[in-house]
Write a structure and sequence with these properties.
The complex is a heterodimer.
Chain A lengths: L5 E2 L6 H27 L14 H16 L1 H7 L10 H21 L7 H6 L6 H24 L7 H24 L12 H27 L6 H31 L4 H10 L2 H23 L7 H28 L8 E6 L13 H24 L3 E2 L4 H4 L7
Antiparallel strand pairs in A: 1-3
Helix pairs in contact in A: 1-13, 2-4, 2-7, 2-8, 2-12, 2-13, 3-4, 3-7, 4-6, 4-13, 6-7, 7-8, 8-9, 8-12, 9-11, 10-11, 11-12
Chain B lengths: L4 H28 L13 E6 L9 H9 L15 E8 L5 E7 L7 H5 L5 E3 L5 E3 L9 H5 L6 E2 L18 E2 L5 H6 L5 H8 L5 E5 L6 H8 L15 E4 L2
Parallel strand pairs in B: 1-9
Antiparallel strand pairs in B: 1-8, 2-3, 4-5, 6-7
Helix pairs in contact in B: 2-6
The chains are: A mainly alpha, B alpha+beta.
Chain lengths: 404, 243
């Protein structure tokens, strides 16, 4: 491989500042929404005592899962020694940090008492997977920033492999922790499953790479740099593999549940008669977020189109949000039972009925704000520091490549 | 029967000894009780026994009393208003038999809410009462996700009419405290149990599950009882009979 040259985004084009302004605007709206919700209390949102975690959690968990997945591109280079991915690594680390920051901002601003963040940082219950996650998230920032330093400082380059391996291990544990937030919940039929942890890891591969590819295509095009077919084709096919992997885990998860009589209720709810959740599962998660983008990624004709692959990446993101909606909100909406062989028919507290939930505007704004801050951080960083290679043209990325 | 002088003296002596020692023994027993400034111990395991057969349809005395006692007020928004105790109706899947009974925090020996709480705000006292520390609750609501009984409420809006013994605050989580202030005062009962008794139903009995001599233990020994979600093996402090 030829020497790779990295350069910050040059030029102060109005387009770039326009993007920054829009993102900043969305972020401001999100902060306003968070203030509104905290000031009035959560009753102004769609959340209730039945659906406890709402749309902000859908976005937050999605972003956190995607953050760990975005680091994969760098891991493939450092840990698995694939030279083709080396010029892609810096952006991978940057996106990982930015997406995690976005997810955590949403999570923290949706707390009942976000002002008590210091309490969360000073009081720990080490049996809580949430407490572990606080360490995993904060540690992830530190590890990835050090990893970026190893990659970006020539003198430190020799350490990028061991640090990369450490970061890769950390991200696997982090996503295990995120999946286990749900996996360790014994009370609800939709959760309480060890498969949720590896399933979230494979989801993260797909979500992270989809966002990575979107940002890479936009950034290279926006700065007038080449993104050749060699890198492009490799990444889109890899995305196809990750989507297929997600399918596999979803299949195992549901087959396991279908085998357990106690879980027939939740499976019937998600797969057959859960209304919006069933639609979100089949249309959102499976068709829009899975089948269509997988076909585009693997199809050599369709996959050649940059526009179609951009669409495929967007669909993976939409499908990922649908998946989180089904898992997080669908899992809560389905009623819990108190006694075996008895059905809860009524109560003064919505027992035995499917809980209703409608996302409110402030919740959606806060969630989208997480995406905005992630993109804003990325945009500012690529403007200020050399994260992006000058070129990813085929001749640069792969010297053995011969133009057809 | 005639008692000789020696016998009389013997019996009298024994009676005097018993009357002298017995109060002392009673004092030891009392001394083992807890002063307000002493920490709670695992010697007690406070709990409730709910007899569903005695719970009257349509009666909400326990709910009203609980919310009155603890200053739990709502804003006419059922989905977000807090509930520390509620009445549920269950129907047998095979026979269609219906019955109602109250459900509140089950004060588990292995409370999932305590396991998942990141800051340790959700905690269990040595005497089995599960509580929320209002100073360290960050309002993440993970405990509500974890509770199999839907026993906890998130305070969705500004609270008014708080009682000094039951602090409540917007943005934190709360649930039945087993009237911990009454327990610590030595009332040996809860507001719901008192109200139910007053209504003449006596469906709720408070007591020490560790004390073989307590009424709750005696009644649990006499008749079969169950826990809610027995499959989870949480060893709840609230037991049910007649379901």
């Amino acid at each position: 491989m030829a020497n790779i040259h990295y350069r910050p985004f040059e030029g102060c084009t109005t387009g770039f500042y326009g993007v920054l302004a829009v993102l900043a605007g969305v972020l401001l709206a999100a902060l306003g929404a968070a203030w509104y919700m905290e000031h009035n209390g959560h009753w102004v949102t769609g959340m209730t005592n039945q659906v406890i975690w709402g749309t902000p959690h859908v976005f937050a968990v999605f972003l956190i899962v995607a953050a760990s997945g975005a680091l994969n591109v760098a891991s493939i280079s450092s840990v698995f020694g694939r030279a083709l991915y080396k010029p892609l690594s810096r952006l991978s680390g940057l996106l990982a940090v930015a997406l995690l920051a976005g997810g955590l901002m949403v999570l923290v601003l949706d707390l009942g008492r976000p002002d008590r963040l210091i309490v969360a940082m000073t009081y720990y219950n080490f049996k809580s997977i949430f407490a572990w996650n606080i360490f995993l998230y904060v540690g992830f920032f530190a590890v990835v920033i050090v990893y970026l330093w190893m990659m970006m400082e020539r003198k430190m380059n020799v350490y990028s492999k061991p640090v990369g391996l450490f970061a890769f291990t950390w991200r696997l544990i982090l996503t295990t922790g995120t999946g286990s937030i749900f996996g360790f919940l014994v009370a609800r039929d939709a959760y309480n499953s060890a498969v949720l942890a590896p399933m979230f890891i494979v989801f993260s591969f797909a979500y992270g790479l989809a966002i990575y590819l979107l940002v890479l295509m936009a950034a290279m095009k926006g700065s007038g740099r080449d993104l050749g077919d060699v890198v492009f084709t490799r990444l889109r096919r890899l995305l196809g593999v990750f989507i297929a992997g997600s399918f596999y885990f979803v299949l195992v998860y549901h087959l396991t549940n279908l085998y357990i009589a106690q879980r027939h209720g939740i499976e019937e709810f998600i797969l057959l008669n859960g209304g919006i959740y069933t639609q979100m599962f089949w249309i959102g998660q499976m068709l829009v977020g899975g089948l269509i983008p997988m076909v585009i990624c693997f199809h050599n004709g369709l996959g050649r189109s940059r526009a179609l692959v951009t669409l495929a990446c967007l669909l993976v993101v939409i499908g990922g949000l649908a998946q989180m909606y089904v898992t997080i909100i669908g899992g809560q909406a389905f009623p819990m039972q108190l006694l075996p062989d008895k059905t809860l028919v009524s109560s003064g507290f919505f027992d035995g009925v499917v809980a209703s939930y409608r996302p409110s505007l402030p919740e959606i704004l806060l969630g989208v704000g997480g995406v905005a801050i992630a993109l804003l951080l990325t945009a500012v960083a690529v403007r200020a520091l050399p994260f992006l290679p000058e070129s990813l043209a085929d001749a640069v990325a792969d010297p053995h490549h011969k133009a057809a | 029967m005639t008692i000789n002088r020696r016998g009389f003296l013997g019996i009298s002596g024994a009676a005097i000894a018993v009357s002298a020692v017995a109060p002392g023994l009673r004092l030891i027993e009392l001394a083992e009780g807890r002063a307000p400034d002493q920490a709670v111990t695992p010697k007690q395991r406070w709990g409730l026994l709910i007899d569903a057969a005695k719970c009257a349809d349509g009666c909400t005395a326990c709910i009203d009393a609980c919310h009155e006692e603890n200053g739990v007020t709502g804003n006419n928004r059922p989905a977000t208003d807090p509930q520390w105790i509620r009445k549920v109706t269950v129907e047998d899947n095979t026979t269609g038999f219906r019955q109602s009974f109250p459900v509140m925090c089950q004060h588990c020996e292995h409370p999932p809410c305590v396991d998942v709480c990141p800051t340790g705000a959700s905690f269990k006292r040595a005497d089995g009462i599960v509580l929320v520390d209002k100073h360290t609750c960050i309002g993440c609501r993970y405990c509500m996700m974890a509770c199999p009984y839907k026993a906890r409420s998130f305070i969705h809006e500004v609270t008014t009419g708080q009682k000094t013994h039951a602090p409540r605050g917007k943005g934190t989580v709360e649930s039945c405290t087993l009237c911990v202030h009454k327990v610590d005062r030595g009332d040996n009962t809860t507001a719901c149990a008192v109200a139910c008794k007053k209504e003449g139903h006596e469906a709720i009995l408070f007591g020490d599950l560790n004390d073989p001599g307590s009424e709750i233990r005696k009644r649990l020994k006499q008749k079969p009882s169950t826990q809610l979600r027995p499959d989870l093996k949480l060893n709840t402090g609230v037991r049910y009979q007649g379901v």
